[in-house]
Amino acid sequence: MLKQLQMGLRAFMLLASRVWTCICFLIKKKVRALVQHQPVKYQIYPLSPLSRHRLSLVKRKVLVLDLDETLIHSHHEGVVRQTVKPGTPPDFVLKVTIERHPVRFFVHKRPHVDFFLDIVSQWYELVVFTASMEIYGAAVADKLDNNRGILRRRYYRQHCTPDLGSYTKDLSAISVDLANVFILDNSPGAYRAYPDNAIPIKSWFSDPMDTALLNLLPMLDALRFTQDVRSVLSRNLHLHRLW
What would the pLDDT profile of 109-167 be if each residue is shown by its tens digit? Predict the structure, then answer.
């Protein structure tokens, strides 16, 4: 009788533990969704006639976007040292085949990335340029685009230049007119040949309170009116050393 009672108690405790784990997972997922996807406002007011005229005098510019640690962070199965706190649910999971081996990537979106893309796609032509393999980078870009057609142009690892154990990105391959193209990237090495055409951003891994993308919107709103982005971005070269 006592043995049966002990076995029943163990079974109950095991079930209770699993239920509690499930509840904690759902609560974390809900809280993360509320924090990362809370309503964000960046008022876009109609341009005045003078502003519309000024904008008509300059070319529409190209904003080049890095993926990993700039817009998203991911890790795959088998990673020993995860940079994301265990138990944090991913925003989406990718299943890709690399060298005939199926790999699952757990992808976390930087806070406010969807809102950011919605806004800047109205101001710029967007181009994805990642040093990741195409099979992975294309899948991530598809998820971020979400059938909106705002991330059509894409460049991958094969379009990068190997340099000192890393990869650099040739912006002239995207546009020969360097006055009207610039990159947002967390890695200064990626744009070392084009420091006057770059906006640095701190690498993101898991901070749910990060607002780096939101903080860039006022500057990006103004930058589209310039004749040459380098006239502005070259004044902030000291920022590249911060990251």
Answer: 999 999 999 999 999 999 999 999 999 999 999 999 999 999 999 999 999 999 888 89
Structural element, H or E, at residue 94: strand 92-98
Q: Catalytic site residue 68?
A: yes
Q: What is the pTM of this model?
A: 0.80
Helices (H), 37-164: 49-56, 113-123, 134-145
pLDDT for res 237: 66
d(CA 99, CA 111): 32
Q: Residue 200: count other Cβ atoms within 10 Å of its Cβ.
A: 22
Which of 68, 91, 114, 185 is catalytic? The answer is 68
At 61-72, the pLDDT tens digits run 999 999 999 999
66 catalytic residue (yes or no):
yes
User: For residues 94-118, b (16+ Cβ closer than 10 Å) or e, as one string?
Assistant: bebeeeeeeeebbbbbbbbbbbbbe
**How many residues are listed for the chain in this entry?**
243
If 0-12 CB within 10 Å is exposed, 13-18 middle and 19+ buried, where does residue 72 land? buried
Distance (Å, rounded) from C-alpha 66 to C-alpha 48?
32
Of 178, 179, 116, which Cα lies nearest the Cα of 150? 116
Pick the catalytic residue: 66, 91, 114, 185?
66
Q: What is the pLDDT of residues 34-67, one digit of tens each?
A: 555 555 667 788 899 999 999 999 999 999 999 9
